[in-house]
Amino acid sequence: MRVAIAGAGAVGRSIAGELLENGHEILLIDKAPTAISVERVPLAEWLLADACEITSLDEAALQRCNVVIAATGDDKVNLVVSLLAKTEYGVPRVVARVNNPKNEWLFNEAWGVDVAVSTPRLMSALVEEAVSVGDLVRLLRFSHGDANLVELTLPPEAALAGTRVGDVQWPEDTSLVTIIRGNRVLTPNKEDALEAGDELLFVAAQSREEQLEDLLSVRREA
Fold first, then answer.
1. Would 2-118 and 132-216 be classified into the same CATH topology?
2. Which fold has domain 2-118?
């Protein structure tokens, strides 16, 4: 898979390194000469250019990319790169970094963004996930369909503890994608029984999050 990353700072280089280890073809783009550190990611292609310029993206052959990642420290740049990647080059998957949470509402399909990653939001979500049981934690927002990746740890007294996945009437527009049980990562099967302490990851419409949290809450006394 060919991936172009706009922004060759610490974030962009880190992403590039991981994707290269997984066998992908990586192009790093940055307009600052000081950011071009080929020795840090020697297996990547490097391009000294402004990713907001059509001529630069033509040179990068963006139309051949399967994914574009807008990873600069400037939200305006990330939005422009995302929009150009999607509308001018038809890139199938566009992932954008959100630096200021106040700008998160802009990172949607209208700007060509398929997945918006807010580092401050993700960090706070991981803190919440580590300390909260029974509360829904939003980890990631997908622009298409107004869906989110959310996590909830099943509390010991949850009404659904012991219930088979296939017997649960999940809310509409939600999908259980992973069960983390101890050190195991399970692909949900309809025969699997939910256990207290399970970390459940869902892709869910934002409008269904409250229903999902209610469904997985502790038993209520009559």
1. no
2. Rossmann fold (3.40.50)
d(CA 148, CA 76): 23
Task: Give the length of the chain.
Answer: 222
| pLDDT tens, position by position, 60-85 | 999 999 999 999 999 999 999 999 99
Name the band, by pLDDT with cuts 50, 70 and 90, for residue 150: confident
pLDDT at 90: 97
Q: Which residues contact 95 (CB under 8 A, 6 or more apart)?
A: 67, 68, 69, 70, 113, 114, 115, 116, 117
**Which amino acid, one-letter code, is at 208?**
R
Give the architecture (CATH level 2) of 132-216.
2-Layer Sandwich (3.30)
Residue ranges per structural domain of the chain: 2-118, 132-216
Q: Which amino acid is at 171?
A: P
What residues contact residue 136 under an 8 Å CB cut-off, 6+ apart?
150, 151, 152, 209, 212, 213
